[in-house]
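REQUEST FORM: STRUCTURE PREDICTION
Request ID: SP-0412
Submitted by: Lab K.M.
Chain count: 1
Length (residues): 395
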Amino acid sequence: MSQFNTSTNHPLIPNSQEYLVYKKIISIHSEDRDMVKFPSASEFEIELPQDYLNVRSATLSSWTFPANYSTFSLQNRNITMSFQLNPCNPGSLRVSEPLQHAIFNSLYKKIGSDFFIIIESGFYNPDQMTTELTNRFNQAVTDYIVSTIDPAYVTEFLQHGGYTDFVIVYNNVSQKIWFGNKSSGFTLTNNIDNDSNFYDTNIYCKQQRVPTFVNWGLPYFLGLTRCPEESITAGENLPRFYYGDVKPGDSGFWLTPNQYLPGCQVYFLECPQKINLMGPSYFYIDIDLLNNIDETYPFNISGFTNMTNETNGKVNSAFAKIAIPTTPLSQWFETEASESYKIFDPPAERIRRLKIKIRYHDGSPVNFDSFPFSFSLQFTLFNAQKKLGYNLTLI
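STATUS: Completed
RESULT:
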């Protein structure tokens, strides 16, 4: 006899706990978002084609992303640096040329004050970076001299090519940058905060970025520390790269004295660390409801870290961690299912809309500009059904 009440027209039917398990692939393209509401592809919401019911698990199935990132940009706050100059006094060398005395008189007023440079945003190789720095350093000094020198010498000064004493080169063996000056001592003032001088405070306030001891500015990527770096001189000995020419025919002597200041000494310094122009090696995909990766935060000095021995981080911070295996400009893809997944127990009743954010480890958004990207999600779905029996006759 049935244990259920059968005297009603609507008897309760026990759940047989029988399900049909099947997988569904959802392909998502960045260009499918509402570009009016979400102009940046790094953070957007998207409506899925249908309601996905009884979702048991979600997996990142495949993806393709462009390698078009800018290691150096205003957004990354790493396109500026500063320096001070201690100009060579032509009088101490018994140089009587009026132009050199006018240049010295102009630069003498700047002793103890900083020159600032801003490099072009983008991606550099080492030679491009040293060329950019050489031109920017010399241009910063040239602009100052033109604005302060006796007007009678401006034309002659520019006809000589402006200020050209800074020479910045890359040592291919040690993978370090060397800064040099043909006549004057200098200091790289890496300890000052350039934010208030160049960066829009509104941009800074909008950035969701955790404090960090790395990626703190252009000097960090060049192999410098936060301490000021003072140039040195080797007297009559000139700095030399013994592995070969820096420029054709120079025999590795990359820094020579200023020909207009006979008897002057050259000044130089070697960055203490190797150059780092590669940019980030990973980024994260955050998808609300699907996040399953626990992530530690970059170390920072705070009341928490000073008073405890514990680390800090976030539980269920991201859904996927994607390696960046190439440099601009290129495209990379992966067609094998990753280890990024989310299991729902019990199954999620319904998923229809996803909120997606693509960011770096420090929280700053990935800037794709106008380059599209795509990835696919695989949902494992449970479809409740009655257990059916089939009698099959094989002929």
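NOTES: The chain has two domains: 19-69+280-384, 80-270.
Reviewed by: T.R.
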